[in-house]
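Lab meeting minutes (informal)
Scribe: AK
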Amino acid sequence: MRAWCREKSISGKTTGLVPTMGALHEGHLSLVHAAKNSCDHCVTSIFVNPTQFAANEDLDQYPRPIEDDLAMLRDAGVEAVFMPTADEMYPGGAERHSTSVHPSAVALPLEGIHRPEHFAGVATVVMKLFQAAPSDRAFFGRKDFQQLCVIEHMVRDLNLPIEIVPCDIVREPDGLAMSSRNRYLSDDERQRALCISKSLNLVERAFHDGSRDAKQLESIMADHLSPCDSVDYAVVVDRQTLLPVPKITRNAVALVAARLGATRLIDNRELETE
């Protein structure tokens, strides 16, 4: 894969990388379309990264419909697909892999509390993908907002020669953010999950109506998330630091992580003052 990307670079062409874990949907394809519109060539990676899953998470159950994924990418006009094995990415085994990227402080709150090792695994595998498929730009969705921040900080702090391109969340017609884990939901859970996007809609409306009190906005979310079986967090934080703010004076983001049955979903809404 590295040779293919370097050949394109030597010829003066740009390459866009779309890292995925497979189980593709329209959200992933929107990243592919953005890469194709922005770059001369597009490469998509498919790799279910074991180091970002905790022992009690769904690594073994994570969907891997490889043939369907490849058909979708073929139809989308992707020229190259990088599908490394775990042994190729982690020689000697992921459990014995002793070198990793230590992410910045934006990894500590929110997901960092509920999934403490997650972002070290994410940052490490993304760094490896950047080396294996050296590209001019990499495209990431805003749905995994904290992940996007971690990767942006890694690229900035380590002077990596790649541009990170954030892409908007793609939603189902009823507002549910597209996710590979949506397929786990029962019909009842799928219906109840709509409260997540609805709560964020209400927060955005209150923000545009002039509310800048973070606790007040968080209360709006909490009041409308009762259909969820549990809520890990529903917060309004600073866009740059992901730390709590009593009053919104610069760009912020509302983030939710909640469970419907055994399925954990995340969503967010950016609240821009500028």
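Next up, CB showed the second protein from the same session:
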Amino acid sequence: MEQLFKKGAFFLLLFITVEASAQLSVKRLNDPSIVAQHKRMTFERWGDWRPYPKYFLGIQTNFAYATVWGMWAPSRNRDYKDGPDIRPLKPTGEQNLRFAQLKFQEEEAKKIKAASDTIYKRSVQDFAHWTSATVDAYPLWLLYYKRMLKPITEFPDTPQNFLEWRLKDQQTYETLSTTGTIKRLQEELDLIKEKYSMSRSMDMPRGKRFLMYHETLIKWRKFVQELRKHNNKTTLLLDYKNILKNHLSTALPNAWTPASDQQIVQNMMNHYKHKY
């Protein structure tokens, strides 16, 4: 067993030695024909058709040339040798043209991308300018109109009593209801609230939205002023009516009601009943 192991080690060492000597003995080949072909395939030089022909008494005697470029060569070889310069990396070569086209396409792609980015940014700006999704973020809304238009949202949509209408008392509310003023005020209130809702929910330019805010604010101020005016006017009218009722000499007693003709005749008969 030990002897077999020694033989295996010997053959392994011999194999490694042979491989190392074979690698060290490799030579670098330089075939001029292959080098010339490489030059023709890139950009350096068109021509140098190796192997070269050799002539003796006008007769071509180089067999290698005859089989590669000469009379015995394939037709595609002769067409390649006699054809135009097709180096791909020459100044007007196919590969250089592809590089130029690629560079041109890259520049065009950059221009298209820049235009697309501009359109995208413009679209985002237009969306932010038009959309109602960002109305709560406008600085002018936060600083002014939110506070000034808040009473509109707090005012009831359909007030049912004098407290909701912000009137002085029930008598004032009944007076305005009798004269039809409450109905007209309700219509004005509906218009104000509808305009406010449109200004908050519709998509429109930012400037137009703020104009609607301001128009709504002006209408609301006029509405509140009219409410206050009607409140004061009705109160003054009721006070004046009470003054007339209590102080005029022609004022009738509270419990007096006009008598009918039958009651007048009955009273006269009762008055003169025992006199005759």
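CB comment: The two ends are 180 Å apart (CA to CA).
No objections, moving on.
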